[in-house]
Design goal:
Length: 228
């Protein structure tokens, strides 16, 4: 499909038939080099389902995409006593960018859930920050039910931290990834720990069994029922 230039998504949505409206997917800017004219995005390849994952698995050099944004307001606060940064593969680019923005005196924990050792990336952390890789043993899209949500490695690790090793003082949290784990099992624990609203960046990045469109519906239903 060739769209009129300059590309205007709002105009296209208002004037094109539904089946010709472009699909939108949400990704993290892992790196932007304006001088070099490059924008880096790390895509999770998660099997044959979906649009962006299969696209990333097969895309050829020279392919064009349209980019909207950016959104998001999180930045690590140097005044926080400690940081808790948690994510799965989908949030690894965001957590990595956040880690790079931490000051040298930052303290806290980084918990990253990936399939196995081969999925770890080089991620230097400040001396006062502990980085732990949590191995699921399988990809997220192939994980059995007992490793999703309540049983996910990142849920287990955050619950353990909250119970016995929660940092002293004001903790700023950045927790993103599979929505059932983040929203149903991790978020309540962080709230119970008294994390202030201003220090709270917690959201699902994708939801098992839902496309991004279906996930948006789920998120707005959750916000309505919980009054968030
Ligand atoms: C603010 C934000 C930033 C994000 N940044 C990144 C990023 O940098 N890199 C990244 O890879 N993702 C990122 N995501 C997640 C990404 O938007 C979703 O994974 C999206 O659903 C992918 O679209 P798709 O077309 O591949 O699959 P969809 O068409 O949306 O879904 C098809 C199927 O694939 C499954 N699926 C979708 N994503 C995953 C996954 N990660 N693992 C396993 N199964 C999946 C769905 O459950 C569904 O069954 C981000 C999301 C948000 C909200």
């Amino acid at each position: 499909m060739v769209y009129p230039e300059p590309f205007d998504l709002q105009e296209i949505r208002a004037t094109f038939p539904p089946e010709q409206i472009p699909v939108v997917r949400t990704y993290t800017v892992r790196d932007l080099d304006v001088a070099a004219g490059t924008l880096a995005i790390d895509f999770v390849v998660h099997g044959d389902e979906g649009v962006a994952g299969p696209w990333a698995a097969t895309v050829e050099p020279g392919t064009a995409i349209h980019v909207l944004g950016p959104g998001g307001a999180y930045a690590p606060d140097p005044a926080a006593d400690a940081h808790l940064l948690v994510g799965d593969e989908s949030a690894l680019p965001a957590v990595a960018a956040a880690v790079e923005a931490l000051g040298p005196d930052a303290r806290g924990h980084v918990l990253l859930e990936v399939a196995g050792p081969g999925d770890e990336v080089d991620l230097p952390v400040p001396a006062g920050v502990e980085l732990r890789w949590l191995h699921r043993g399988t990809t997220a899209h192939e994980a059995p039910a007992e490793l999703v949500g309540a049983g996910s490695p990142m849920t287990t690790a955050v619950l353990a931290l909250a119970e016995s090793a929660w940092p002293e003082g004001r903790v700023q949290v950045f927790v993103h990834g599979e929505a059932e784990a983040v929203m149903h099992h991790i978020r309540p624990v962080l709230k119970a720990r008294g994390v202030a609203k201003a220090d709270f960046s917690v959201s699902g990045y994708w939801r098992r069994g839902r496309t991004e469109e279906g996930f948006r519906v789920w998120k707005s239903e959750l916000a309505r029922t919980e009054g968030d």
